[in-house]
């Protein structure tokens, strides 16, 4: 089964996308498999709505565990199951909080196994100085993704005014990469993402 | 995931958890990992293609000049290259430039480097942009002469097609004229001559063989001689040159020859030269002698319980046979 990993800096909207995308693909409840930082696995079933209110927040580093969800993606005439992984945010350097460090290590470990890499960047905060502004680690992910092959960038928060400006910047900056403008909140660009994923399923 | 990688990842994970390295370092490691595994795959493909594609003229010329002896041949190649360059320059200036006919005749005994030089020429001409592919197709009488009427032209055309963009090398070309009046060999020659005129820019024809026979062959077919502007004589190697060649071959294979073995080699080569003359084999004989001695050495060593490095690389006197047989 293909492993599709969703990663990026904190607070770019990974979890929103994760849940909304599941909803878009017709899931109304999701079975989430958490791997917490002690390596214990726990399986919980939520309705999408509950999951949203439980998992999404506007503060950075809300997601600390890697969440797995099995999705069926239409491919040709049938459907194929993939595992979509939502991960904790990645930032540069060494964080003083151990739980964040572990969360990042988990993310990177899963990145290594993943077949499809979806790299999310907050297009609206490119010209601002926030935790979600792109930095070294984004360039590294880009480098890694390009060398792996099945890789795209989601320029998220495109519904915001600054989003379009940011998209232009990203297009210039990552010329060799397929960039999909999305809004996790307003479900923009989901069709393209679905197509991208089904194209790259092994 | 290989177990080695798994270990590395687990180790890095631990380092991150303890806050010893930055997340960027982990990612960098992944990047390098992905790249090396990728480049290793690419390299194999690239090496194969790049070798053919991006050879610089200097590299090939260097290779040519590394060949032992063949001084006349080397100066001839330089001459041809200069000629080609000037003709190209003349054309650029709008001057009358004779079209580049580069069909050649190689005369020389077996093992004097005719095929080796032909192969190098193909690559040189490719690097110079005169030939599209620069490959070498080696053919002999049987590949060109058919069995029934009309078959010959077909066969010749087939070979020419394969040689397009490269060099068509006909060894022992005089054998085409061997069979007398009713032989289809004549038809093959006619077909070749026609193709040489029709596709003179697309391929190079090299006729090779013993000097005497080639001269007779050209005498009998006067139309042919004028169509080959370049004649190269491949002289027999002197015994000293053959020894140099032997040294080179031995070195390539990571062996060495002991002093007395070298003396024996010298004797064998000299006596062969006297007894067998032009059929002695030249460089090919040297190669055969060395390959045989390498096998003999292997047999000699296989009985030994323990071999030192010296044992493994030294070819001794007793490894060399008195002759080829």
What do these coordinates show?
Chain B: This is Stage V sporulation protein K. Chain B: Belongs to the CbxX/CfxQ family. Chain B: One of its GO terms (molecular function) is ATP hydrolysis activity. The complex is a heterodimer of chains A (202) and B (325). Chain A has 202 residues and is an alpha/beta fold. Chain A is built from 6 helices and 8 strands. An 8-stranded mixed β-sheet of chain A has the order 3-2-4-5-1-6-7-8, with helices on both faces. In chain A, a hairpin with a 2-residue loop joins strand 4 (66-75) and strand 5 (78-86). The mean pLDDT of chain A is 81. With 325 residues, chain B is α/β, with parallel strands linked by helices. Chain B has 3 domains: 3-53; 57-234, Rossmann fold; 239-319, Helicase, Ruva Protein, domain 3 (Orthogonal Bundle). In chain B, 60% of the residues lie in helices and 9% in strands. Chain B has helices at residues 3-18, 23-53, 57-66, 71-92, 114-127, 141-144, 151-163, 185-198, 211-220, 222-225, 239-252, 259-276, 282-302, 309-313; strands spanning 104-108, 136-139, 167-171, 204-209, 230-234, 256-257, 314-315. Chain B has a 5-stranded parallel β-sheet. Classes of the chains: A alpha/beta (202), B alpha/beta (325). Chains A and B meet through helix 3 and helix 4 of A and helix 1 and helix 2 of B.
Provide a compact summary of the structure.
Chain B: Keywords: ATP-binding, Nucleotide-binding. The complex is a heterodimer of chains A (202) and B (325). Chain A has helices at 14-24, 48-55, 98-113, 136-148, 161-173, 190-200, and strands spanning 2-8, 29-35, 41-47, 66-75, 78-86, 116-122, 151-156, 178-181.
């Amino acid at each position: 089964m293909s492993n599709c990993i969703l990663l990026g800096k904190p607070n770019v909207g990974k979890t929103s996308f994760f849940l909304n995308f599941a909803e878009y693909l017709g899931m109304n409840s999701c079975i989430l498999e958490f791997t917490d930082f002690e390596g214990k696995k726990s399986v919980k079933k939520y309705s999408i709505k509950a999951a949203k209110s439980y998992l999404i927040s506007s503060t950075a580093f809300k997601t600390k565990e890697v969440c797995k969800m099995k999705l069926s993606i239409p491919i040709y005439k049938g459907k194929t199951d993939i595992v979509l992984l939502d991960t904790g945010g990645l930032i540069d350097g060494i964080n003083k909080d151990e739980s964040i460090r572990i969360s990042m290590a988990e993310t990177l470990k899963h990145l290594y196994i993943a077949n499809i890499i979806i790299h999310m960047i907050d297009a609206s905060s490119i010209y601002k100085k926030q935790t979600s502004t792109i930095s070294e680690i984004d360039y590294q992910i880009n480098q890694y993704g390009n060398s792996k092959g099945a890789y795209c960038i989601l320029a998220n928060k495109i519904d915001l005014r600054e989003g379009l400006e940011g998209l232009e910047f990203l297009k210039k900056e990552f010329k060799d990469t397929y960039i999909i403008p999305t809004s996790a909140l307003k479900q923009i660009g989901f069709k393209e993402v679905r197509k991208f994923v089904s194209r790259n399923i092994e | 995931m290989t177990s080695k990688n798994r270990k590395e990842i687990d180790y890095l994970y631990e380092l991150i958890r303890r806050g010893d390295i930055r997340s960027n370092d982990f990612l960098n490691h992944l990047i390098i990992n992905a790249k090396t595994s990728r480049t290793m795959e690419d390299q194999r493909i690239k090496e194969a293609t790049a070798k053919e594609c991006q050879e610089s003229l200097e590299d090939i010329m260097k290779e040519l000049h590394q060949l032992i002896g063949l001084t006349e041949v080397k100066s001839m190649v330089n001459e041809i290259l200069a000629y080609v360059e000037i003709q190209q320059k003349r054309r650029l200036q709008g001057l009358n430039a004779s079209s580049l006919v580069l069909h050649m005749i190689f005369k020389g005994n077996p093992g004097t480097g005719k095929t080796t030089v032909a192969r190098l020429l193909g690559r040189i001409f490719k690097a110079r942009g005169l030939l599209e592919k620069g490959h070498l197709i080696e053919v002999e009488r049987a590949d060109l002469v058919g069995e029934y009427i009309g078959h010959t032209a077909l066969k010749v055309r087939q070979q020419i097609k394969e040689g397009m963009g490269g060099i068509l090398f006909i060894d022992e070309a005089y054998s085409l004229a061997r069979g007398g009046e009713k032989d289809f060999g004549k038809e093959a020659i006619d077909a070749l001559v026609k193709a040489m005129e029709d596709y003179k820019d697309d391929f190079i024809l090299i006729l090779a063989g013993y000097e005497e026979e080639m001269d007779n062959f050209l005498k009998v077919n006067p139309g042919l001689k004028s169509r080959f502007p370049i004649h190269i004589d491949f002289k027999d190697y002197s015994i000293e040159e053959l020894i140099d060649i032997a040294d080179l071959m031995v070195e390539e294979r990571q062996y060495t020859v002991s002093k007395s073995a070298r003396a024996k080699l010298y004797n064998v080569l000299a006596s062969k030269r006297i007894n067998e003359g032009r059929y002695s084999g030249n460089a090919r004989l040297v190669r055969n002698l060395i390959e045989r001695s390498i096998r003999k050495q292997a047999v000699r060593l296989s009985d030994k319980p323990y071999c030192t490095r010296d044992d493994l690389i030294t070819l001794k006197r007793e490894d060399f046979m008195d002759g080829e047989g």
